[in-house]
Amino acid sequence: MNSKNKKQIYKQDGRKYIDTEYVPQDPKHREKEITQISKQIIEFIINRVSGSFLIYGNSGTGKTMSFKVAMSVAQAYLSKNDPDRKDHKMIFVTAKGTDITPLMTEICRSLDVKAPSRGISFKDYINLINEKIQKTYVHICIDEFDNLLSRTREKAEDLIYYFTRTERLSLTIITNRINLAKEIQDARVFSSLNTLNSINFRDYDPAQCYDILKERTNMTFNPNFIYDNVLQTLSKHIAIEGGDIRKGLSVLGLCAKYAEESNILTITPEIMTDIIEKYDILKDGEKPEKTINFRKADSGSDIFTPFNKSMQHTGF
């Protein structure tokens, strides 16, 4: 790999802007959603009411990013307009797996409540949280809530019931499942989940995908690395496939990796199309850079070389 070539591709500190975890200060095409979410959080906290807020939409449509920005907006508003009232806390946690115990442990720790990571029941965690909220109003956001429904549905439904029926506590759920409410089997829980108090993140259209990816490209790469016509190709494909911006960012990262390995400074339309095609056939959940390898491009050679045996059937 040519280190000089790498410097010519990326701007200084540019890599972070195509990281899927990066949260822009002023996200494009989600202003309305961020405003709605922040108003709801503020209403919960000021009025000290229990309840729920549901955020749903397909993967990569900006749900997590928008909530994080809205949480900052809400905190800034509360600090300015009610500086003396500090007896509230906003918590953002992610259900990373199907087991509810790590999630409950993380919630407790976010509340500065000492809780063992194992050996106590779901009810014990609830009791620990309940002790804390006697003095502090808490709004909890659980991202990727879908994960809990695959193995611990009963406890997940109990969590919804408790977090929406307890004084001084409110809940935001972020999910990819558009019909999440219809999957709730317990009638008590269904009635607790305010489906009218929700927001649907619609898929990004081609123009929106282009605006977002163009901004990230300008922040990440030096000029002329990806021309507009090439970025338009990527944007249209992302929109057709459901508007998953994270996929677009991953493809941009693969473009940079290919350019580094091939010692080139510009991604052509042909290279972009090939990278998109190879990305599309990767197994779900695998990181592309760990599943595919690059070799120096020359006439007639493929861009990708497989080194994961599980991918040999793809015919690279």
TrEMBL record:
One Pfam family recorded for the sequence: AAA_22
Keyword Cell cycle: yes
InterPro entries recorded: AAA_22, Cdc6_lid, ORC1/CDC6, P-loop_NTPase
Keywords: ATP-binding, Cell cycle, Cell division, DNA replication, Nucleotide-binding
Cdc6 AAA+ ATPase-type lid domain sequence ranges: 210-270
Superkingdom, natural source: Archaea
Family stated for the protein in its record: Belongs to the CDC6/cdc18 family.
Name of the molecule in the record: Cell division control protein 6
Organism of derivation: Candidatus Methanoperedens nitratireducens
Gene: cdc6_1
